[in-house]
Amino acid sequence: MDSITIGLWVTAGMLVLVVLGMRVAFAAGLAGLVGLVLVFWAKRDFGGEHLGWALTVAIKTAGQVPHSKVASQALSLIPTFILIGYLAYYAGLTRALFEAAKRWIAWMPGGLAVSTVFATAGFAAVSGASVATAAVFARIAIPEMIACGYNKRFAAGVVAAGGTLASLIPPSAILVIYAIIVEQDVGKLLLAGFIPGAFSAVIYAILIVGIAVVFKSVGPPVRGFTWRERFVSLPPALPIFFVVVIIIFFVYNPFGDAWGTPTEGGALGAFVVFLMALYRGMRWGELKSALLETAKLTVMIFTIIWGVLIYVRFLGFADLPGAFSDWITSLHMPPLLILICILLAYAVLGMFMDAIGMLLLTLPVVYPAVMALNGGEFVSAADSAFGMSGTMCAIWFGILVVKMAEFCLITPPIGLNCFVVAGVQPDLSVQDVFRGVMPFFFADAVTIALLVSFPGIVLYLPSLVG
Amino acid sequence: MAGHSPVLEDGSLLSRLDRKLLRLERVFGLLSGLAVFSLMVLAVISVGGRNLFNAPLPGYVDWIEQAMPLIAFMGISFVQRDGGHIRMDILIGQLRGRALWAAELISVLMMLALMLALVWGSWAHFQRSFDFAAPWWSRDSSIDIGLPIWPAKLLAPVAFSVLCLRLCLQAFGYGRAMVLGLRNPVAVPLIQNTADQAAAEAEQLDGRG
Amino acid sequence: ATEWNASVWGKRRAFTENVEKIAELVSEKTDGAFTINVSYGGLSKPKENLDAISIGAIEMAQFCAGYHPDKNRLITVLELPFLGVSNLEEEVAVSNAVYAHPAVQKEMAQWNARLLMTSPMPQYNIVGTGEPRDELAEFDGMRVRATGGLGEAFRAVGGVPTSVPATEAYNAMESGVVDTVAFAQHAHLSFGTINRADWWTANLNPGTVNCPIVVNTDAYDALSDDERAALDGSVDEAIAHYLANYGELLKRWDTVLEEKGVQKVMISDEVLAQFRDKAAVPARDKWIAEMAAQGLPGQELYDLVVSTLEKTRAGN
Ligand code: NA
Ligand code: NA
């Protein structure tokens, strides 16, 4: 067996374990470990007396990975971003945002739904997790929309779709993970998510207004807020803007020098929300449960990260990514068509898999292939297939892939956001939510098509930095 | 997909052991959470020190790298206790009774095999950085201010050992359920159907909006 | 056939040309019977290359002593500030002398590693923005991205060493997290700090990092006589290739400075002497005392570096 064959068998074995229900982190770790044993053993021609040696070397090599990969300054953004989200609940920021958005824009047709989308987008600026965002707004926004005469399926669909914005608009745990896997600059990626996230929100809003205009009964306008009421609603939502400004300005300051590094920005954002939560009466008991919840989610994500990286270390020894990208570049198809096929494959895979697990398992093989397709990591824009340099291609592909992963949160059969929304509102079934969210598939399809055709939407902000 | 599953409790020895271990796991989990909090504090000190006193925190990056293993590993068993590590349960969720317990048992035993290997491997990684004869017992130090790295490396085998204990308990729990044909075994995470699971997730966020 | 894996990091650059060249030479000399596959980060992390050698997972690796001083205490003698090394040939000579010392080889034997050759690095000069800092007083309060012993040297004259990963050095400069960054020329180019700079110190020469290439002892012993001869016999040629290649880069350097409008700052001998007195002597004495406390021949190695340097200069 040569190393490529070993690589393919071990990968197939891992996918079988994952499908059969083994926890993703451990399935990947086990596959990586077994693969390493085989690769080292193969080096000594599978001689019986060398099995013990191969086993020891493989175990020690795998045993390096957890500490070595996790002790990284860049990864420290993930727990910070998660903590911000949990603290934001206690600071009451979610309701404040929704209230402000409602008073300002509910007068339009479908206005309350548009408010919901903009409030989720605002909350996305402090929350890194889509599912949590959907759960929170299902509680706040759906009852209100139903009370104002909105169609309940439509209301549910709006929240499920709005929740997906959290992973594009910074801070975003999933973008940090992408940056780590592909070894690109975290700051630039976070920055790149900003316009596509806002762009998605606007497309959702246009779609909502369109639907509300055509089907008058779906989302009637809500009027009657005085200007005074409108302005009074702004201050409680202000900390969100502080956090946005801090994080953005630490990455990129349009007026001059940036204020620091992304890591510092994330941590300071969390600190502002923490102070706000203290001010709103958070005590040790609540802080403790926020810390425990943060720890749980963080550990879960980190376990997948190092588990998958054991598998990736094995891939390095087996040189499978190299072989795959050689194969991809040897195909006689236009590079853009191949890219679209890859994105469609993600759409299918995402129907069944969790976003983070999906990205971690596939990127080590897919990413080098996409980069090779564009002409290599160090290609200049002029010589490339997609008309952008290697670094820019990495950013562009990252945003596309994350948008795909988010899209999968609202598609059947496994659309986690829809499940969560249905779970929060007992009088809504999962089918109701899936039906309500259907129009947003088109919105997302349009967004993805536009991001593919006009990479500038993604690349404008990062191109301003260094 | 993921989520937290209920773990039943009763007065049996298995369940008592489960709760004893849970107490330790909770402490480890909280340590992990406090380490996240300390990251935030470190950044505030570093940025504040730099801008107010022109005195950035020496070795800021080194300290973060020391804190990360604390965050990443300590809660690993706490998460496994109620089945929080992500998996796809579309297929396994269709199984019932003995077949389900058998599948869970195999899965847990494979995890146990991996974790035992990793306890060994990460211990060896720690040992290479540790030297009784050297100052601070250190044979591996950080790049900037030369912090010894062995304490951070030691966290991996420690946390993984606790996870191994947890997996042994769960293996026993599933094995017992399989042999006795139990419907609702104690001390193991039970698969919820999607609706229950979503309700549980919503419950978690209850009252925090 | 013998297949080795060599672990380096980053992308192929002047710094890895010695490994690339030796892989090429060895394969040529053995008609492809002995091949070395150079991997850029796929097999191990830079800070863990010695671990991977010790385990036996890889057969050849590059690492830098300053990344983890406690793993290689003795080699860090070559990273002491102001040793007076002024070009790559001298860097090669002092490295070779230190690598040949039995105490150094014994320390590497703990990692099951055998020193093969060095990857000589030029001195880490600083780039900065605004007015050039060429007086000692101007280093006071200066935030400088410099790690380990180099950071200590700047601290001795009132500088504020600031931890920033190399990959964030550009952002750190842009955001004022640091005022200046210390790197070798190729790193100023690849991390983009030169694009942000107004000036570069041409002759501060405060020190550098030392980055050996090691091989796994068991794998080395398992080579056939021909293979071992091919490997050992290619070292000088690989180093010569490295020096020639880096020489080209240094020649281009002046053009780069001109293109980017970066001012070349010459520090006066007087200022250099002051800096040396404040930074070099205490750092050296501290290092020697630390080694002595652990029963390691620090003084001997330091003297070896000094005498080798003298000999090299006398020879030219
Ligand atoms: Na977000
Ligand atoms: Na889906």
Automatic annotation (TrEMBL), chain A:
<protein>
    <submittedName>
        <fullName>TRAP transporter large permease</fullName>
    </submittedName>
</protein>
<keyword id="KW-0997">Cell inner membrane</keyword>
<dbReference type="GO" id="GO:0005886">
    <property type="term" value="C:plasma membrane"/>
</dbReference>
<feature type="transmembrane region" description="Helical">
    <location>
        <begin position="407"/>
        <end position="425"/>
    </location>
</feature>
<keyword id="KW-0472">Membrane</keyword>
<dbReference type="GO" id="GO:0022857">
    <property type="term" value="F:transmembrane transporter activity"/>
</dbReference>
<dbReference type="InterPro" id="IPR004681">
    <property type="entry name" value="TRAP_DctM"/>
</dbReference>
<keyword id="KW-1003">Cell membrane</keyword>
<feature type="transmembrane region" description="Helical">
    <location>
        <begin position="327"/>
        <end position="349"/>
    </location>
</feature>
<feature type="transmembrane region" description="Helical">
    <location>
        <begin position="74"/>
        <end position="92"/>
    </location>
</feature>
<dbReference type="Pfam" id="PF06808">
    <property type="entry name" value="DctM"/>
</dbReference>
<feature type="transmembrane region" description="Helical">
    <location>
        <begin position="356"/>
        <end position="373"/>
    </location>
</feature>
<feature type="transmembrane region" description="Helical">
    <location>
        <begin position="154"/>
        <end position="181"/>
    </location>
</feature>
<dbReference type="InterPro" id="IPR010656">
    <property type="entry name" value="DctM"/>
</dbReference>
<feature type="transmembrane region" description="Helical">
    <location>
        <begin position="385"/>
        <end position="402"/>
    </location>
</feature>
<feature type="transmembrane region" description="Helical">
    <location>
        <begin position="437"/>
        <end position="461"/>
    </location>
</feature>
<comment type="function">
    <text>Part of the tripartite ATP-independent periplasmic (TRAP) transport system.</text>
</comment>
<keyword id="KW-0813">Transport</keyword>
<feature type="domain" description="TRAP C4-dicarboxylate transport system permease DctM subunit">
    <location>
        <begin position="13"/>
        <end position="457"/>
    </location>
</feature>
<keyword id="KW-1133">Transmembrane helix</keyword>
<keyword id="KW-0812">Transmembrane</keyword>
<feature type="transmembrane region" description="Helical">
    <location>
        <begin position="236"/>
        <end position="253"/>
    </location>
</feature>
TrEMBL record, chain B:
<comment type="function">
    <text>Part of the tripartite ATP-independent periplasmic (TRAP) transport system.</text>
</comment>
<keyword id="KW-1133">Transmembrane helix</keyword>
<dbReference type="Pfam" id="PF04290">
    <property type="entry name" value="DctQ"/>
</dbReference>
<dbReference type="GO" id="GO:0005886">
    <property type="term" value="C:plasma membrane"/>
</dbReference>
<protein>
    <recommendedName>
        <fullName>TRAP transporter small permease protein</fullName>
    </recommendedName>
</protein>
<feature type="domain" description="Tripartite ATP-independent periplasmic transporters DctQ component">
    <location>
        <begin position="39"/>
        <end position="171"/>
    </location>
</feature>
<keyword id="KW-1003">Cell membrane</keyword>
<feature type="transmembrane region" description="Helical">
    <location>
        <begin position="100"/>
        <end position="123"/>
    </location>
</feature>
<dbReference type="InterPro" id="IPR055348">
    <property type="entry name" value="DctQ"/>
</dbReference>
<keyword id="KW-0812">Transmembrane</keyword>
<comment type="similarity">
    <text>Belongs to the TRAP transporter small permease family.</text>
</comment>
<keyword id="KW-0997">Cell inner membrane</keyword>
<dbReference type="InterPro" id="IPR007387">
    <property type="entry name" value="TRAP_DctQ"/>
</dbReference>
<comment type="subunit">
    <text>The complex comprises the extracytoplasmic solute receptor protein and the two transmembrane proteins.</text>
</comment>
<dbReference type="GO" id="GO:0015740">
    <property type="term" value="P:C4-dicarboxylate transport"/>
</dbReference>
<dbReference type="GO" id="GO:0022857">
    <property type="term" value="F:transmembrane transporter activity"/>
</dbReference>
<feature type="transmembrane region" description="Helical">
    <location>
        <begin position="27"/>
        <end position="48"/>
    </location>
</feature>
<keyword id="KW-0472">Membrane</keyword>
<keyword id="KW-0813">Transport</keyword>
<feature type="transmembrane region" description="Helical">
    <location>
        <begin position="154"/>
        <end position="174"/>
    </location>
</feature>
<feature type="transmembrane region" description="Helical">
    <location>
        <begin position="60"/>
        <end position="79"/>
    </location>
</feature>
